[in-house]
TrEMBL record:
Name of the protein in question: 4Fe-4S dicluster domain-containing protein
Keywords, comma-separated and alphabetical: Iron, Iron-sulfur, Metal-binding
PANTHER family registered for this protein in UniProt: IRON-SULFUR CLUSTER-BINDING PROTEIN, IRON-SULFUR CLUSTER-BINDING PROTEIN-RELATED
Domain 4Fe-4S ferredoxin-type: 154-187
Cross-referenced Gene3D superfamilies: 3.30.70.20
Length: 229
């Protein structure tokens, strides 16, 4: 018999998702409460969905920003948000609480982070590990993907996280970063982001790119990653 998790997984693949996983947030409840207060209290599962970028399109960013990348960025976000809303509404109809986190949404201009970490959810769901670039790295496509998350209290069986620290001695993203925002540190749960990334330096660099290119786009760190290249 099809479990609820199987039903959701089939739905995601039918709608054009490339990866699906379920994270238990029990182990990271303290970190989540520390970052977001009690906003997501009681939502102890995170459904994580990824859609892949065409690799060739993303790899072009090694040479500078492109409009092709921006086009697919919007297409992929729209698909992810549609999938998240459909899953959320299905679970809601079954009587569960859900909170779909949009694929790309900041709290505000002064707070650079989003309203929930898709990368944390995806790494706990076994979709990859958080690399030195602070992006999720998947063994199949590296960081050439985008993510969406649906928080829920549905009692879904959780997947196992991958091993942390799979970047090893690689420094490709750090070397490729124009403002040297990436500090070359491995991700460890509980460490502040500032140990690994100068988010302001990245933000300022993107603001400069907007002056010359018209849009905030870089992604050299993604294009440089050897995983999945
Ligand atoms: S997006 Fe660009 S500036 Fe920001 S961390 Fe990556 S390479 Fe550096
Ligand atoms: S470029 Fe290297 S160090 Fe950076 S995320 Fe990819 S594997 Fe890790």
């Amino acid at each position: 018999m099809l479990t609820l998790k199987n039903e959701l997984e089939q739905m995601v693949f039918h709608l054009g998702g490339d990866l699906f996983g379920v994270a238990s947030l029990d182990d990271v409840a303290r970190e989540i409460a520390g970052e977001y207060g009690d906003t997501y209290q009681g939502l102890e599962r995170a459904i994580s969905v990824a859609v892949f970028f065409p690799k060739e399109v993303l790899n072009e960013l090694a040479e500078g920003p492109t409009h092709t990348y921006l086009y697919y960025y919007d297409v992929i976000n729209a698909r992810l948000n549609d999938i998240a809303l459909r899953i959320s509404n299905l679970l809601q109809k079954k009587g569960f609480r859900t909170f779909p986190i949009p694929a790309s949404q900041r709290v505000n201009e002064s707070k650079l982070a989003g309203i929930f970490s898709h990368r944390l959810a995806a790494s706990r769901a076994g979709l990859g590990w958080i690399g030195k670039s602070c992006c999720l790295v998947n063994p199949q496509v590296g960081p050439r993907l985008r993510l969406v998350t649906i928080l829920t209290n549905a009692p879904l069986e959780s997947d196992q996280p991958l091993e942390e620290g799979c970047c090893g001695s690689c420094t490709a993203c750090q070397d490729a970063c124009p403002p040297q925002a990436i500090k070359g540190q491995e991700f460890h749960l509980g460490d502040p982001l500032s140990l690994r990334l100068d988010a302001q330096a990245c933000h300022d660099y993107l603001a400069n790119v907007r002056h010359s290119f018209g849009k905030r786009v870089c992604g050299r760190c993604l294009a440089a990653c050897p995983w999945g290249k």
